[in-house]
Amino acid sequence: QVQLVESGGDLAQPGGSLRLSCDASGFTFRGYAMSWARQAPGKGLEWVSGIASDMSDTTYADSVKGRFTISRDNAKDILYLQMNDLKPEDTAVYYCARGRTTFVYWGQGTQVTVSA
Description:
Blueprint: E1 3-7, E2 11-12, E3 18-25, E4 34-39, E5 45-51, E6 58-60, E7 68-73, E8 78-83, E9 92-98, E10 110-114
Parallel strand pairs: 2-10
Antiparallel strand pairs: 1-3, 3-8, 4-5, 4-9, 5-6, 7-8, 9-10
């Protein structure tokens, strides 16, 4: 069965960095575009970034453009999100999802808290 397991969430200071990982299994990872999304406390789900199956294209929400970088390792079936210059408004549970526009499979999420 499809499994997506996020890790790497932590408490970070404003201006700091974190790298999230998403280990994928149960499907042919290299055949699918992937995305990151997040949900802040009391808010709805927000799409953050997406990457093509062959890494030929990446897209970002305006709120993270220039600070976050999505990448993937198709040999290891891992999706990454490098987050730099973190801001308190980046505090959220971060999810990886299979796809770029329609998301059927999600991970359980990893908590990122940005606070001094």
